[in-house]
Amino acid sequence: MQLVSYNIQYGTGKDGRVDIDRIVSEIADGDVIAMQEVDRFWTRSEMADQVEALTKRLPEHHWVYGPGVDMDASDRDETGTLRRRRRQFGNLLLSRFPVLLSRNHLLPKMSFHSQLSIQRSALDGAIAFPDGPVRVASVHLAHAAELERVSQVATLRELQRVAGRDGGVLSGAHSHWCEEGPQHTMPKSSILLGDFNMTPAEQAYEAMVGPDDPKYGRITLADGYVDAWIESGGDPNGGHTKFEETGNRRIDYAFVSPDLADRIRDVRVDAVAQGSDHQPIWLDIDL
Questions:
Q1: Candidates 3.90.1300.10, 3.60.10.10, 3.30.950.10, 3.10.180.10; correct CATH number of 2-75+85-167+184-285?
Q2: Dihedral sign for Cα atoms in the order 6, 11, 12, 15
Q3: Model pTM?
Q4: Is there a contact between 127 and 97 (Cβ–Cβ < 8 Å)?
Q5: Which of 37, 122, 173, 177 is the most exposed place for a label (fewest CB within 10 A)?
């Protein structure tokens, strides 16, 4: 199974052009595609509904979208008719297999004196893979402050702790709610894909994957995750997904729950993709 995560920077490539077709060409082979920074009705992305544009170009993929930022973008056309639109910025999750249920989790947000602060989110979907449902999330953490990311990682781990125990999006019995088919809960097995805006040297990374003990090595937490890049034998000093003049960084990840670690086949970064200021990261895993 090929899973890919791509922060698309609202379709703006390294040449400064907004090109949705280029984005699609770089990730269309993915069985599951997690995107971050997907716009709806922003001037910077030509007032396009990028959710509609992307999903129309991938007609064999089921999809769900979860905005972090959601504001009014309504106006009136030349006839005076109201155009009801929401200006949104968030995460998109697409899958060749049905997304049985989904939830959009708004992550903890801090307000700073002058630094830009954006409402971040984790879009969670239970996907019906051939071997059974797995929870896959498209995640985007804060860019500005590690303290904020630490708080957001704590929320992601709490979601893992309660997965399967909180009844999903619908539980209990009522004729008006249960006649549509079986109810599903969030599986315990999970994969987090996305732009985590952290390097492996940060406290937030250790909070995700557990402490690195000088005697025992990495100690995986029961409610934590395994870094698929490292688990697959990737260079701890490689795997960069953000190329910058100040130095390349590994900030986009595929994290898997410990029970899925032995199913990882390969992890790679597409270092030649041009569609964004990030590089796509691909996870090959048996599901």
A1: 3.60.10.10
A2: positive
A3: 0.96
A4: yes
A5: 173
Sequence spans of domains, the chain: 2-75+85-167+184-285
DSSP 35-74: EEEEEES-GGGTT-BHHHHHHHH-TTSEEEEEEEEEEE--
DSSP 101: E
Query: Which tokens is 204 given?
Result: 């937030």
Please state, in angstroms and rounded to a whole number, the distance separating the CA atoms of residues 139 and 34: 8
Question: Angle formed by the axes of helices 50-57 and 20-27, to 10°?
Answer: 40
The letter for the amino acid at 241 is T
Backbone angles phi, psi at 57, to 5 degrees: -85, -10
Count Cβ atoms below 10 Å from residue 206 Cβ, excluding itself.
18
Compute how many other C-beta atoms are within 10 angstroms of the C-beta atom of residue 163.
20
